[in-house]
Specification:
mainly alpha
């Protein structure tokens, strides 16, 4: 998971569009992590 995030982050630095998508992905992933931890 962390490797995937670092790859996405690397590409996110190239374009602003990807960066916006990356931020949305981060929000979704952090929510998923919270749900997994609570359950």
């Amino acid at each position: 998971m962390k490797r995937m995030l670092s790859v996405i982050g690397r590409y996110g630095r190239f374009t602003k569009k990807t960066r916006k998508t990356f931020r949305r992905l981060m929000a979704m992933i952090s929510t998923d992590d919270n749900e997994i931890e609570s359950s």
